[in-house]
Amino acid sequence: MIVCVAANPSIDKLFEVERLVAGEIHRPLGFVQTAGGKGLNVARAAHHLGGDVRVAAILRGHAGAWLEETLQAEGIDGSFVWTHGENRSSLSVADRSAGNLTEFYEHGPDAPEAAWAELLETVNGLFQPGSWLTISGSMPRGLRDEGYRDLVAEAMTAGLRVALDAEGEPLRLAVEAGPEIVKLNASEASGLLGEPASGRDDALVACAKLRELAGGDGHAGIVTRGAEGVTVAAPDGTRYEGVLYERGRYPVGSGDAFLGGLIVGLERGDRWPDALRLALGAAAANAELPGAGALDAARAKSLTERADIHEI
Description:
ten-stranded mixed beta sheet
């Protein structure tokens, strides 16, 4: 089983316009609304790829009810903690003429410590030794930075394998607890390490440093660089570089789809190169369809065959 933690989920909205002009009124050519935030994007991608997925999330108000109903309609099981307020929203505006995205992400309201304690208890109830736990995205405002660190430690004590994708101080503290996988984009890796990670050579150095920070042998560091591909320091120390030459119009959530694909591959026993191919196929398939994590499984698997993974 794959348990996906979504501490700060959102309603993700995508508008498509012919041309985005500041100060003008726009009538969207297309609109998609999904249950989003990194944790739910990972869950959706893994679910589409055949993973046995369970979500653990903090939900709030009418927005939370919509998120729960949407996940149920998609066939994604969940265990939810309810607290006051409303879940946040995130907006992406796709400019067809320019081929780019303009994005607006709400922080969301503060959450009480009691909600985090209840989420920890909920996640603990889903622990199965040998299964995977993914921790993705931001912590809600108002909570202790140590929250993810405590969750990583509890999960690993219970015999779970943990994949982490976060940012800021919660990320720094959680890495110290030794998750099996630390998967960051170049900006997040640069923020954690205090040095560049966007170029190919810098990313190769960064992924090796992430592996060492997480504990060295038995741990993996991954730096994704969008369309430029991925660099990996695997648990056995082998370094890989991977790329898939496909460019979709909807890249939001592709990093999350990558993580979902990687964990599905590893959970079913794939070798690291094969799991990375599935991850790249999932990321590329995600970018072809509007709505984060809403990939076509058959397309993702066909793209997997075109992924270039080589050992450094």
